[in-house]
Protein backbone atom coordinates (compact mmCIF):
# COMPACT_ATOMS: atom_id res chain seq x y z
CA UNK A 1 0.00 0.00 0.00
CA UNK A 2 1.45 3.43 -0.88
CA UNK A 3 2.31 5.56 2.16
CA UNK A 4 0.04 8.41 3.14
CA UNK A 5 1.35 11.97 3.36
CA UNK A 6 3.25 11.98 6.64
CA UNK A 7 3.89 14.69 9.21
CA UNK A 8 7.28 15.46 7.65
CA UNK A 9 5.73 16.10 4.23
CA UNK A 10 3.00 18.20 5.79
CA UNK A 11 5.65 20.31 7.55
CA UNK A 12 7.46 20.89 4.25
CA UNK A 13 4.26 22.00 2.55
CA UNK A 14 3.32 24.27 5.46
CA UNK A 15 6.75 25.92 5.46
CA UNK A 16 6.52 26.48 1.72
CA UNK A 17 3.13 28.11 2.12
CA UNK A 18 4.25 30.35 4.96
CA UNK A 19 7.42 31.52 3.22
CA UNK A 20 6.19 31.82 -0.36
CA UNK A 21 2.49 32.51 0.03
CA UNK A 22 0.65 29.44 -1.23
CA UNK A 23 -1.53 30.09 -4.22
CA UNK A 24 -4.94 28.73 -5.02
CA UNK A 25 -6.21 27.11 -8.20
CA UNK A 26 -5.16 30.19 -10.18
CA UNK A 27 -1.64 30.28 -8.67
CA UNK A 28 -2.68 33.22 -6.44
CA UNK A 29 -5.97 34.60 -7.68
CA UNK A 30 -6.24 38.36 -8.22
CA UNK A 31 -9.07 40.31 -6.62
CA UNK A 32 -11.16 42.54 -8.88
CA UNK A 33 -11.28 46.10 -7.67
CA UNK A 34 -12.37 49.33 -9.30
CA UNK A 35 -10.89 52.25 -7.32
CA UNK A 36 -13.31 55.07 -6.59
CA UNK A 37 -11.18 57.47 -8.57
CA UNK A 38 -11.93 55.41 -11.71
CA UNK A 39 -15.70 55.36 -11.22
CA UNK A 40 -18.35 57.86 -12.23
CA UNK A 41 -22.02 58.60 -11.92
CA UNK A 42 -24.66 58.94 -14.63
CA UNK A 43 -24.44 62.11 -16.61
CA UNK A 44 -22.49 61.32 -19.74
CA UNK A 45 -24.45 58.70 -21.70
CA UNK A 46 -21.30 57.60 -23.52
CA UNK A 47 -18.63 55.34 -22.00
CA UNK A 48 -15.44 57.20 -21.16
CA UNK A 49 -12.38 56.54 -23.24
CA UNK A 50 -10.08 54.03 -21.54
CA UNK A 51 -7.36 56.68 -21.46
CA UNK A 52 -9.53 58.69 -19.06
CA UNK A 53 -9.48 56.09 -16.31
CA UNK A 54 -6.97 53.26 -16.82
CA UNK A 55 -3.82 55.26 -15.93
CA UNK A 56 -5.50 56.26 -12.65
CA UNK A 57 -5.84 52.58 -11.72
CA UNK A 58 -2.16 51.74 -12.20
CA UNK A 59 -0.08 51.33 -9.08
CA UNK A 60 3.28 50.34 -10.46
CA UNK A 61 5.08 47.74 -8.36
CA UNK A 62 7.77 46.87 -10.91
CA UNK A 63 10.56 48.65 -12.79
CA UNK A 64 8.49 48.07 -15.92
CA UNK A 65 4.89 47.23 -16.78
CA UNK A 66 2.96 46.92 -20.04
CA UNK A 67 -0.84 46.79 -20.20
CA UNK A 68 -2.70 45.72 -23.34
CA UNK A 69 -6.48 45.91 -23.80
CA UNK A 70 -8.93 44.76 -26.47
CA UNK A 71 -12.15 46.77 -26.18
CA UNK A 72 -15.71 45.94 -27.25
CA UNK A 73 -15.01 47.41 -30.70
CA UNK A 74 -12.07 45.01 -31.11
CA UNK A 75 -9.58 47.88 -30.94
CA UNK A 76 -6.23 47.30 -29.25
CA UNK A 77 -4.75 49.75 -26.76
CA UNK A 78 -1.37 49.74 -24.99
CA UNK A 79 0.03 51.54 -21.96
CA UNK A 80 3.72 51.43 -21.13
CA UNK A 81 5.29 52.21 -17.77
CA UNK A 82 8.94 52.15 -16.76
CA UNK A 83 12.00 50.35 -18.03
CA UNK A 84 13.49 46.92 -18.70
CA UNK A 85 15.92 47.35 -15.81
CA UNK A 86 17.33 50.12 -13.67
CA UNK A 87 20.85 49.85 -15.14
CA UNK A 88 20.14 50.18 -18.86
CA UNK A 89 16.76 51.90 -18.50
CA UNK A 90 15.39 50.90 -21.89
CA UNK A 91 11.67 51.85 -22.04
CA UNK A 92 9.31 48.86 -22.17
CA UNK A 93 6.65 48.56 -24.85
CA UNK A 94 4.21 46.02 -26.30
CA UNK A 95 7.07 44.24 -28.09
CA UNK A 96 9.25 43.84 -24.97
CA UNK A 97 9.79 40.21 -23.93
CA UNK A 98 8.83 39.13 -20.42
CA UNK A 99 8.97 35.71 -18.80
CA UNK A 100 5.31 34.80 -18.30
CA UNK A 101 5.64 31.76 -16.02
CA UNK A 102 2.45 29.78 -15.68
CA UNK A 103 0.75 31.43 -18.64
CA UNK A 104 2.79 28.73 -20.40
CA UNK A 105 0.32 26.19 -19.03
CA UNK A 106 -2.50 27.77 -21.01
CA UNK A 107 -0.56 27.33 -24.24
CA UNK A 108 0.39 23.73 -23.44
CA UNK A 109 -3.16 22.83 -22.39
CA UNK A 110 -4.66 24.25 -25.56
CA UNK A 111 -2.09 22.45 -27.73
CA UNK A 112 -3.26 19.32 -25.90
CA UNK A 113 -6.85 20.28 -26.71
CA UNK A 114 -5.90 20.46 -30.41
CA UNK A 115 -4.50 16.91 -30.15
CA UNK A 116 -7.86 15.86 -28.68
CA UNK A 117 -9.71 17.64 -31.50
CA UNK A 118 -7.50 15.74 -33.98
CA UNK A 119 -8.44 12.45 -32.30
CA UNK A 120 -4.83 11.70 -31.32
CA UNK A 121 -5.70 11.82 -27.60
CA UNK A 122 -8.89 11.64 -25.53
CA UNK A 123 -9.70 13.57 -22.37
CA UNK A 124 -10.70 10.28 -20.74
CA UNK A 125 -7.28 8.69 -21.33
CA UNK A 126 -5.63 7.69 -18.05
CA UNK A 127 -2.00 7.73 -16.95
CA UNK A 128 -2.07 3.94 -16.98
CA UNK A 129 -2.35 4.09 -20.78
CA UNK A 130 -0.65 7.45 -21.40
CA UNK A 131 2.68 6.66 -19.70
CA UNK A 132 5.25 3.97 -20.52
CA UNK A 133 4.52 0.60 -18.85
CA UNK A 134 7.87 0.89 -17.05
CA UNK A 135 6.66 3.88 -14.99
CA UNK A 136 5.52 2.76 -11.54
CA UNK A 137 2.06 4.07 -10.67
CA UNK A 138 -0.01 3.82 -7.53
CA UNK A 139 -3.60 2.65 -7.95
CA UNK A 140 -4.79 6.27 -7.61
CA UNK A 141 -2.21 7.56 -10.11
CA UNK A 142 -3.31 4.99 -12.69
CA UNK A 143 -6.79 6.55 -12.73
CA UNK A 144 -5.71 10.17 -13.31
CA UNK A 145 -7.13 11.34 -16.64
CA UNK A 146 -5.72 13.74 -19.19
CA UNK A 147 -8.62 16.11 -18.44
CA UNK A 148 -7.78 16.06 -14.73
CA UNK A 149 -4.17 17.02 -15.46
CA UNK A 150 -5.10 20.08 -17.52
CA UNK A 151 -7.86 21.24 -15.13
CA UNK A 152 -5.78 20.83 -11.93
CA UNK A 153 -8.32 18.29 -10.63
CA UNK A 154 -6.00 15.26 -10.46
CA UNK A 155 -5.31 15.74 -6.74
CA UNK A 156 -1.56 15.98 -7.37
CA UNK A 157 0.15 18.55 -5.10
CA UNK A 158 1.77 21.80 -6.23
CA UNK A 159 5.16 20.07 -6.26
CA UNK A 160 6.84 17.02 -4.77
CA UNK A 161 7.24 17.25 -1.00
CA UNK A 162 10.64 15.98 0.08
CA UNK A 163 13.89 17.19 1.63
CA UNK A 164 15.68 18.03 -1.66
CA UNK A 165 12.74 20.22 -2.71
CA UNK A 166 12.67 21.99 0.66
CA UNK A 167 16.43 22.54 0.52
CA UNK A 168 16.23 24.00 -2.98
CA UNK A 169 13.28 26.17 -1.98
CA UNK A 170 15.11 27.62 1.02
CA UNK A 171 18.08 28.48 -1.23
CA UNK A 172 15.66 30.24 -3.58
CA UNK A 173 14.41 32.45 -0.75
CA UNK A 174 17.95 33.83 -0.40
CA UNK A 175 19.20 33.87 -4.01
CA UNK A 176 16.15 33.63 -6.30
CA UNK A 177 17.47 30.59 -8.17
CA UNK A 178 15.20 28.03 -9.83
CA UNK A 179 14.11 25.29 -7.40
CA UNK A 180 12.18 23.13 -9.88
CA UNK A 181 15.07 21.03 -11.24
CA UNK A 182 13.35 17.81 -10.13
CA UNK A 183 10.12 18.64 -11.96
CA UNK A 184 12.09 19.58 -15.07
CA UNK A 185 13.72 16.14 -15.23
CA UNK A 186 12.26 12.77 -16.17
CA UNK A 187 12.43 11.84 -12.49
CA UNK A 188 9.17 13.75 -12.11
CA UNK A 189 7.15 10.59 -12.82
CA UNK A 190 8.80 8.88 -9.82
CA UNK A 191 6.41 10.86 -7.61
CA UNK A 192 3.46 8.93 -9.03
CA UNK A 193 4.43 5.60 -7.48
CA UNK A 194 3.18 6.61 -4.04
CA UNK A 195 0.43 9.06 -4.93
CA UNK A 196 -2.69 8.92 -2.76
CA UNK A 197 -5.66 10.91 -3.98
CA UNK A 198 -7.01 13.47 -1.46
CA UNK A 199 -10.45 12.85 -0.02
CA UNK A 200 -11.83 16.04 -1.61
CA UNK A 201 -12.20 16.51 -5.39
CA UNK A 202 -11.61 20.27 -5.08
CA UNK A 203 -9.12 21.56 -7.69
CA UNK A 204 -5.51 21.93 -6.52
CA UNK A 205 -3.02 23.97 -8.50
CA UNK A 206 -0.25 21.60 -9.55
CA UNK A 207 3.08 22.32 -11.23
CA UNK A 208 3.76 18.62 -10.75
CA UNK A 209 0.65 17.76 -12.77
CA UNK A 210 1.73 19.94 -15.69
CA UNK A 211 5.27 18.53 -15.63
CA UNK A 212 3.70 15.07 -15.88
CA UNK A 213 1.57 16.39 -18.75
CA UNK A 214 4.74 17.47 -20.59
CA UNK A 215 6.18 13.98 -20.07
CA UNK A 216 2.97 12.42 -21.42
CA UNK A 217 2.93 14.64 -24.51
CA UNK A 218 6.53 13.82 -25.33
CA UNK A 219 5.93 10.07 -24.92
CA UNK A 220 2.69 10.07 -26.92
CA UNK A 221 3.75 12.34 -29.80
CA UNK A 222 7.54 12.28 -29.85
CA UNK A 223 7.53 16.06 -29.47
CA UNK A 224 8.04 18.26 -26.43
CA UNK A 225 5.27 20.58 -25.28
CA UNK A 226 7.05 23.65 -26.65
CA UNK A 227 7.30 22.09 -30.11
CA UNK A 228 3.60 21.18 -30.07
CA UNK A 229 2.65 24.71 -29.01
CA UNK A 230 4.74 26.20 -31.83
CA UNK A 231 3.17 23.92 -34.44
CA UNK A 232 -0.43 23.61 -33.26
CA UNK A 233 -1.03 27.03 -31.70
CA UNK A 234 1.51 29.74 -32.50
CA UNK A 235 1.88 29.06 -36.23
CA UNK A 236 -1.86 29.09 -37.10
CA UNK A 237 -2.46 32.13 -34.85
CA UNK A 238 0.42 34.10 -36.34
CA UNK A 239 2.28 34.40 -33.05
CA UNK A 240 5.93 35.01 -33.93
CA UNK A 241 7.44 36.77 -30.90
CA UNK A 242 6.75 34.22 -28.17
CA UNK A 243 9.05 31.28 -27.50
CA UNK A 244 10.13 28.63 -25.01
CA UNK A 245 13.69 29.17 -26.34
CA UNK A 246 13.65 32.99 -26.22
CA UNK A 247 17.38 33.38 -26.84
CA UNK A 248 16.55 32.79 -30.52
CA UNK A 249 14.29 35.84 -30.68
CA UNK A 250 15.58 39.19 -31.91
CA UNK A 251 13.97 40.91 -28.92
CA UNK A 252 15.96 38.84 -26.39
CA UNK A 253 18.82 41.33 -25.79
CA UNK A 254 16.31 44.07 -24.87
CA UNK A 255 14.04 41.84 -22.77
CA UNK A 256 12.64 42.99 -19.45
CA UNK A 257 14.97 41.81 -16.66
CA UNK A 258 13.36 40.13 -13.64
CA UNK A 259 13.50 41.77 -10.21
CA UNK A 260 12.67 40.73 -6.67
CA UNK A 261 9.44 42.01 -5.19
CA UNK A 262 7.11 40.07 -2.88
CA UNK A 263 9.47 37.15 -3.50
CA UNK A 264 12.14 35.87 -3.04
CA UNK A 265 11.50 36.49 0.64
CA UNK A 266 15.01 37.51 1.67
CA UNK A 267 16.19 39.27 -1.50
CA UNK A 268 15.81 43.07 -1.35
CA UNK A 269 12.94 44.36 -3.50
CA UNK A 270 14.20 45.81 -6.76
CA UNK A 271 17.30 43.62 -6.95
CA UNK A 272 17.85 41.70 -10.19
CA UNK A 273 17.23 37.95 -9.78
CA UNK A 274 18.25 35.05 -12.06
CA UNK A 275 16.19 34.04 -15.10
CA UNK A 276 14.64 30.61 -14.67
CA UNK A 277 15.56 28.36 -17.57
CA UNK A 278 13.90 25.01 -18.26
CA UNK A 279 14.96 22.37 -20.76
CA UNK A 280 12.70 19.43 -19.91
CA UNK A 281 9.28 18.72 -18.46
CA UNK A 282 8.77 22.20 -16.97
CA UNK A 283 9.11 23.95 -20.33
CA UNK A 284 5.40 23.71 -21.08
CA UNK A 285 4.51 24.54 -17.48
CA UNK A 286 6.57 27.70 -17.05
CA UNK A 287 9.20 28.27 -19.73
CA UNK A 288 7.53 30.77 -22.07
CA UNK A 289 8.71 34.29 -22.87
CA UNK A 290 6.24 36.52 -24.72
CA UNK A 291 5.36 40.13 -25.41
CA UNK A 292 2.10 41.90 -24.74
CA UNK A 293 1.12 42.16 -28.41
CA UNK A 294 1.33 38.40 -29.03
CA UNK A 295 -0.51 37.60 -25.81
CA UNK A 296 -3.33 39.90 -26.94
CA UNK A 297 -3.40 37.96 -30.22
CA UNK A 298 -3.75 34.76 -28.20
CA UNK A 299 -6.54 36.32 -26.10
CA UNK A 300 -8.33 37.62 -29.21
CA UNK A 301 -8.54 34.08 -30.59
CA UNK A 302 -10.88 33.25 -27.69
CA UNK A 303 -13.26 36.13 -28.42
CA UNK A 304 -14.44 34.87 -31.81
CA UNK A 305 -13.80 32.30 -34.50
CA UNK A 306 -10.22 31.87 -35.70
CA UNK A 307 -11.34 30.32 -38.99
CA UNK A 308 -9.53 27.13 -37.99
CA UNK A 309 -12.04 24.45 -36.96
CA UNK A 310 -9.53 22.46 -34.88
CA UNK A 311 -8.37 25.55 -32.99
CA UNK A 312 -11.93 26.72 -32.43
CA UNK A 313 -12.87 23.30 -31.06
CA UNK A 314 -9.84 23.29 -28.77
CA UNK A 315 -10.64 26.76 -27.45
CA UNK A 316 -14.26 25.86 -26.80
CA UNK A 317 -12.99 22.93 -24.75
CA UNK A 318 -10.57 25.19 -22.90
CA UNK A 319 -13.24 27.78 -22.04
CA UNK A 320 -15.73 25.21 -20.72
CA UNK A 321 -16.11 25.06 -16.91
CA UNK A 322 -15.32 21.61 -15.51
CA UNK A 323 -15.54 22.42 -11.80
CA UNK A 324 -18.20 25.11 -11.29
CA UNK A 325 -18.13 27.64 -8.48
CA UNK A 326 -18.46 31.43 -8.22
CA UNK A 327 -14.75 32.08 -7.75
CA UNK A 328 -11.93 30.04 -9.31
CA UNK A 329 -14.10 27.72 -11.34
CA UNK A 330 -11.79 25.29 -13.16
CA UNK A 331 -11.48 25.47 -16.93
CA UNK A 332 -8.69 23.87 -18.95
CA UNK A 333 -5.71 25.85 -17.61
CA UNK A 334 -7.94 28.93 -17.37
CA UNK A 335 -9.86 29.94 -14.24
CA UNK A 336 -13.22 31.76 -14.11
CA UNK A 337 -14.53 34.26 -11.53
CA UNK A 338 -18.11 35.55 -11.62
CA UNK A 339 -19.05 39.08 -10.53
CA UNK A 340 -22.79 39.52 -10.93
CA UNK A 341 -23.46 39.55 -14.68
CA UNK A 342 -19.78 39.43 -15.62
CA UNK A 343 -17.54 36.38 -15.85
CA UNK A 344 -13.77 36.90 -16.03
CA UNK A 345 -11.75 33.97 -17.37
CA UNK A 346 -8.05 34.34 -16.70
CA UNK A 347 -4.60 32.97 -15.98
CA UNK A 348 -1.76 34.38 -13.89
CA UNK A 349 1.94 33.60 -13.83
CA UNK A 350 4.74 34.16 -11.34
CA UNK A 351 8.29 33.09 -12.06
CA UNK A 352 11.75 34.34 -11.08
CA UNK A 353 11.39 38.11 -11.13
CA UNK A 354 8.18 38.41 -13.16
CA UNK A 355 4.39 38.56 -12.79
CA UNK A 356 1.90 38.14 -15.62
CA UNK A 357 -1.85 38.17 -16.24
CA UNK A 358 -4.15 37.43 -19.16
CA UNK A 359 -7.90 37.76 -18.77
CA UNK A 360 -10.95 37.82 -21.00
CA UNK A 361 -14.65 38.58 -20.78
CA UNK A 362 -16.01 36.61 -23.72
CA UNK A 363 -19.60 37.79 -23.36
CA UNK A 364 -18.71 41.49 -23.64
CA UNK A 365 -15.65 41.03 -25.89
CA UNK A 366 -12.93 42.41 -23.58
CA UNK A 367 -9.38 41.15 -23.07
CA UNK A 368 -6.53 42.41 -20.89
CA UNK A 369 -2.84 41.49 -20.62
CA UNK A 370 -0.57 42.82 -17.86
CA UNK A 371 3.17 42.01 -17.81
CA UNK A 372 5.56 43.14 -15.05
CA UNK A 373 9.26 42.57 -14.45
CA UNK A 374 8.93 42.11 -10.71
CA UNK A 375 7.54 39.22 -8.69
CA UNK A 376 4.58 40.90 -7.02
CA UNK A 377 1.47 39.36 -5.50
CA UNK A 378 -0.28 42.72 -6.19
CA UNK A 379 -1.41 41.49 -9.59
CA UNK A 380 -5.07 42.54 -9.57
CA UNK A 381 -4.90 45.28 -12.20
CA UNK A 382 -6.11 43.02 -15.02
CA UNK A 383 -9.21 41.97 -13.11
CA UNK A 384 -9.88 45.58 -12.17
CA UNK A 385 -9.62 46.78 -15.78
CA UNK A 386 -12.04 44.10 -17.03
CA UNK A 387 -14.49 44.99 -14.29
CA UNK A 388 -14.22 48.70 -15.12
CA UNK A 389 -14.68 48.08 -18.86
CA UNK A 390 -17.97 46.35 -18.10
CA UNK A 391 -19.01 49.10 -15.66
CA UNK A 392 -18.36 51.77 -18.27
CA UNK A 393 -20.37 49.87 -20.88
CA UNK A 394 -23.16 49.09 -18.44
CA UNK A 395 -23.23 52.66 -17.15
CA UNK A 396 -23.66 54.02 -20.68
CA UNK A 397 -26.51 51.59 -21.32
CA UNK A 398 -28.22 52.32 -17.98
CA UNK A 399 -27.84 56.09 -18.25
CA UNK A 400 -29.09 56.00 -21.84
CA UNK A 401 -32.23 54.10 -20.81
CA UNK A 402 -32.84 56.50 -17.93
CA UNK A 403 -32.48 59.46 -20.26
CA UNK A 404 -35.13 58.01 -22.56
CA UNK A 405 -37.48 57.44 -19.67
Automatic annotation (TrEMBL):
PROSITE patterns: PROKAR_LIPOPROTEIN (PS51257). This is Class A beta-lactamase-related serine hydrolase. The keyword Cytoplasm does not apply. Residues 1-28 form the signal peptide. Residues 56-377 form the Beta-lactamase-related domain. One of its GO terms (molecular function) is hydrolase activity. The keyword Signal applies. Keywords: Hydrolase, Signal.
Amino acid sequence: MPPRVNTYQTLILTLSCLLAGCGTLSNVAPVAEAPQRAQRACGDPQPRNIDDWLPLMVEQHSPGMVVGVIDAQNQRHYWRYGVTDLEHRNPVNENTLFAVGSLSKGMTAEATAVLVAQGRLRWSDTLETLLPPTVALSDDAKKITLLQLVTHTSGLPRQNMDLPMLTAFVRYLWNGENFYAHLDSDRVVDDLAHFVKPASDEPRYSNLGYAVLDYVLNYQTGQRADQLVDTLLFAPLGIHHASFTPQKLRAWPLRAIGHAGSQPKFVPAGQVVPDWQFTGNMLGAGGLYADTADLLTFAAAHLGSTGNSLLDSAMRDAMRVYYPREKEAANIAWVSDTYGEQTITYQVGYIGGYSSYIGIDRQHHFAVVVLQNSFTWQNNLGHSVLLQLWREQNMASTCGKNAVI
